Structure formats: C-alpha cells, structure tokens
Amino acid sequence: MSAKGKCLCGRVQYTFTHRLSGLDVCHCKNCQRQSGAAFVPFVAIPMVALQLTGSPKAFMDNDTESGKTVARHFCGDCGSPLYVVVEAAPQTAYVAVGTLDDTHDLRPECHGWTASKQEWIQILDSATQHEFEPHLQPESTVPE
User: Taking the model in full, what pTM does it have?
Assistant: First the structure.
C-alpha cells in the first residue's frame, strides 16, 4: 500500500509504501501537549520506508512517563507534528494520522497510556487498552 501526507503548510511532505495495520492511539500527557489534542493516533512504519521532502525539526523529549526518549519530528514552519521515534523502537516511525491524505480504512488497534487520558474521553472501540506502557513492537526494517 502506498500512502502520502504532509504538514499543514505543505513544506514537509512524505510518502511510504508499507502495509498499514491498525492505529496506535497514544493518550500520554506529552502527546497531548505536543498536539494540543486529547490523544494522537499513529501508524507504525519502518523508518526505511519513509521518504521525506522538506526538513522537519526534531524535539528530543526525554521527560516522558516511560522514562524513554521520544524524538518528536514536526514542521518548523507551521508546527504540525509529523512522526515520532521512540527509544524502544528506533527503526520505526510512528506517523501522526492527521497528516495522512487518506485515512478511510484505518481503525484503532491499541490505546496506550490510558491512565493519562482525558476523563471526558470514552473509548468505545474494541481495541486493546494499556493503562501505561503499551509495549509497542517495532515494525520490520524491510518495507512490504
């Protein structure tokens, strides 16, 4: 499957060819703060599959609930969060779903850090929920 996306201003764009599985929805406080939203849904793809145009900036977030550093990549012009790379899975890009051009087939597979979720959020899907660390499995380093 081929997918593409971009930041709000379009200065950073990306494409990848990789089978997309379900969404990893993060409810941690740091994702809330970076996005300004109650949670952030991500799709996991191998870093080698991500082809970028433009130059995103990265913020090394080392004050996380897990104690592991998260590299948060974003557009330096419009501020759109694009993808994160977590210390536990350095070969995987977790791409922010809101930046994808087409999301019609995506459904939640996992909700992580639900202990930090906003109290007014009700998780109604049947995806697995993890109160804390979701123990994400790194994606294969070979694109499908």
Answer: 0.87
